[in-house]
Amino acid sequence: MPTEKQKMLAGKAYQAGDAELSKERLKAREIVFEFNNLAPKFIKQRKELLKKLFGKTEKMFYVEPPFRCDYGYNIEIGNNFYANFNLVILDCAKVSIGNNVFIAPNVAIYTAGHPIHAHLRDQEFEWAQEITIGNSVWIGGNVVINPGVKIGSNVVIGSGSIVTRDIPDDVFAAGNPCRVIRKITDEDKDYYYKNFKLEQ
């Protein structure tokens, strides 16, 4: 018979009050507590704690405290990852994040969900679905990403958006629910070279 952890990782209904899962969440919270309470100058030590916590990291990454997560081992981040203050990742399922991803303050990434019907919810059943974020993505402040969402590469998600469905590559998307506003093109690049006098 599968354990509650096996059910969780398989995307099936499970009970989070299970002793094994409770122990793993406590372990993650201990690491997160240490991370969040280190003095600002201890950059290397905070990075080592995240390497210990996350399932996968690359050479270049930086996460501003405070940070919160459930388990940590379901989080995989690519190279040149940056997260600003108050990132929350409920990683009951895998959260895969690509290279060159920038996350603004107060972003919430939720793989976890609960039954709509109170009868099952009152029995503390949960479920979780993976979230995938591609390469070269900028996620604006106060964005919520819901379970099962896939965000493509070269995407900008506007601040305050609630992402409930997949977002394709190369677009600006925003709103509640989040939807594609327009394609991102070379005209967007030219705008910055022209208006901010950047050298090409």
From TrEMBL:
SMART domains: Mac. It is an enzyme of class 2 (transferase). Residues 5-59 form the Maltose/galactoside acetyltransferase domain. Gene3D superfamilies: Hexapeptide repeat proteins. This is Acetyltransferase. Belongs to the transferase hexapeptide repeat family. PROSITE patterns: HEXAPEP_TRANSFERASES. Its EC number is 2.3.1.-. Keywords: Acyltransferase, Repeat, Transferase.
